[in-house]
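Lecture notes, part 5. Sequence design as translation. It can be helpful to think of inverse folding as translation between two languages: the language of shapes and the language of residues. The source text, in structure tokens, appears below.
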């Protein structure tokens, strides 16, 4: 994967702006993988992104493992944090979701299972900065 862009997020507004930028270019069949420490803003980014598609309520699928939201687009939202094996992913139908060309798939903590990620994807790596801003490296 190659580095497409590096962005520093100084506020929730900046995160919302980045989400709107990507909502404008995402198409059905696309996959976005979000990596980073707990609390770095992955789920907040997802919340702002899905709002752009008319989806008012979203939440981290940490316990459900996958949430499906329906608005202007269908969004499959995975959280790999509590997944213990590839088999567990396949048991919940991961292959069907990831191959769905009628929806957009968002995956938090994708770095935990890199072997199951689609080759064609956007990857966003969030990191904390000493001043509490975040840096996001975007690869594609």
């Amino acid at each position: 994967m190659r580095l497409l862009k590096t962005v520093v997020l100084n506020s929730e507004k900046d995160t919302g702006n980045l989400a709107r930028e990507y909502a404008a270019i995402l198409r059905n069949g696309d996959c976005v993988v979000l990596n980073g420490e707990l609390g770095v803003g992955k789920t907040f980014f997802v919340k702002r992104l899905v709002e752009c598609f008319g989806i008012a309520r979203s939440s981290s699928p940490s316990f459900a493992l996958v949430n499906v939201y329906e608005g202007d687009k269908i969004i499959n939202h995975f959280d790999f944090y509590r997944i213990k094996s590839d088999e567990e992913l396949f048991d919940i139908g991961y292959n069907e979701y990831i191959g769905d060309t009628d929806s957009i798939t968002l995956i938090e903590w994708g770095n935990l299972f890199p072997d199951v990620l689609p080759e064609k994807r956007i990857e966003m790596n969030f990191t904390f900065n000493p001043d509490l801003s975040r840096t996001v490296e975007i690869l594609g």
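The translated text above is only one of many valid answers, since several sequences can fold into similar shapes. The radius of gyration is 14 Å.
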